[in-house]
Amino acid sequence: MSAPLYKELFLSLFRESYFKAGLAILAALVVFAVVGPFTTKYGPFDVVGQAYGPPNWQLWLGTDAFGRSVYSQLVYGLGNSLYIALVAGLLATAIGVSIGLIAGYFGGKADVVLNFLTNTILTIPNVVIILLIAIYMPRSWITTTTLGLLIGLFSWPWSARAVRAIAMSIRGREFILVAKLSGETPIEVAFTEVMPQMLAYIFLVFVLQFSGAIVADIGLEALGLLPYKTMTIGFMLFWAVAFSAPSYGAWWWFLPPGLIVMLATTALSMIAMSMDKVFNPRLREE
After folding, report:
1. Matching CATH number, 64-252, of 1.10.3720.10, 3.40.190.10, 3.40.140.80, 3.40.50.720
2. What range(s) does the ABC transmembrane type-1 domain occupy (predicted)?
3. Could you say which of 24, 73, 121, 227 is the most buried, measured as most Cβ atoms within 10 Å of its Cβ?
């Protein structure tokens, strides 16, 4: 895919109203996560008031069951949750694209082995694997980085299958034959000729992996797999449920993090839907 065509595709993407809306929401969440900690003088674990204190001018989102500032938890937790999703999304995309590219372009035994590996990982519930690993992992090792790596390490199979299909459709084109005849090695052809043609789809894969990682992070933390001494959105929801915040009418403890999760996943879904519409030739023709 030539540079002018890529430019046209991305210009078309920015004409999509859903993409612009989703990007604006996601950008607002990122800004809130970056700037938010500077707007509060309390840490996420500081006891600053009575338990289940309602919102007021000093504590904008009240306090939790321990008397800690919910607003402070939200701004610090959002940043950590986005970081976990970013680590997981980048790792899963890198693994999935590499395996899918090699399997789809080279075919033969490489395709058989990598396809078997992909299907094997797909058949095993990744939540179960991560929880089993976490059981035997020292508690202090469960940080935002390790949690992101664990999620990414077992989230790549579907993206590998998608990239494999695209690579198989590209490998027979004329410019690939020209590259081979010019003396490029198979690895060079795969990563310098084939992969650039899939750049738009790789962006789409990352957005989907990032969105899935946010949901996976919340789910794992809701099951009790919590980063060591680190606040996250999932951590907030876990403790809000554990201490029956709805029963006490403490809507300010569980509603804001739930709204953040809804906004993040909706924004990423809008971005992914727009990217699929622009990058998918069949949808562009409709």
Report:
1. 1.10.3720.10
2. 78-272
3. 73
pLDDT digits (tens, 9 = 90+) for 135-179: 777 777 788 898 899 999 989 998 999 888 888 888 878 778 787
- Rounded to an integer, what is the distance from CA 75 to the centroid of its chain? 18
Encode 116-136: b = buried (16+ Cβ within 10 Å), e = exposed: eebeebeeeebeeebeeebee
Residue type, 90: L
Q: Please give the pLDDT value at position 5.
A: 56
pLDDT digits (tens, 9 = 90+) for 227-262: 777 899 988 998 998 898 888 899 999 999 999 999
Count how many residues are written for the chain.
286
Q: Which two tokens stand for residue 104?
A: 């789809």
